Amino acid sequence: MSDLSTQNFPDALRNIIRDRMNDHSDAISGGSCKDFSDYKYMTGIIAGLALAERDLLDLIERGEQ
Fold first, then answer.
1. Is the pLDDT of residue 3 over 60?
2. CB neighbours (10 Å) of residue 50?
3. How far apart are CA 1 and CA 54, in angstroms?
4. How far apart are CA 47 and CA 64, in angstroms?
5. 3-32 burial, b if ≥16 CB within 10 A, otherwise e?
6. SS3 for 4-36, per residue?
7. In this model, does residue 32 exceed pLDDT 70?
8. Can you tell me the distance from the alpha carbon of 7 to that of 21, in angstroms, rounded to the nearest whole number?
9. Which of 43, 46, 55, 63 is the most buried (most CB within 10 A)?
């Protein structure tokens, strides 16, 4: 988990999001899905996290302009 004492908030949040995406991807590739429904659920989580990460990066970029 990211340590806020050594990072600013946006970077720490992005690392948390990225870690969760990687954990879910590793679980899928490791065969943890019991069926297709479980697979769709896990890929939906990854897609949602990817959207949240993109929104965070867009906000950071707008703040730097």
1. no
2. 13
3. 20
4. 26
5. eeeeeeeeebbbeebeebbeebeeebeeee
6. CCCCCHHHHHHHHHHHHHHHHHHHHHCCCCCCH
7. yes
8. 20
9. 46
Which residue's structure tokens are 């991807």?
A: 25
pLDDT at 28: 97
Q: Extract the tokens encoding 18.
A: 């990225």
Q: Of 4 and 47, which is predicted with more confidence?
A: 47
Q: Are 33 and 42 in contact (CB under 8 A)?
A: yes
With a CB cutoff of 8 Å and minimum separation 6, the contacts of 31 are none
CA distances to 55, 56, 58, 65 from 62, in Å: 11, 10, 6, 5
Share above pLDDT 90 across residues of the chain, in percent, rounded to a whole number: 82
**pTM across the whole model:** 0.82
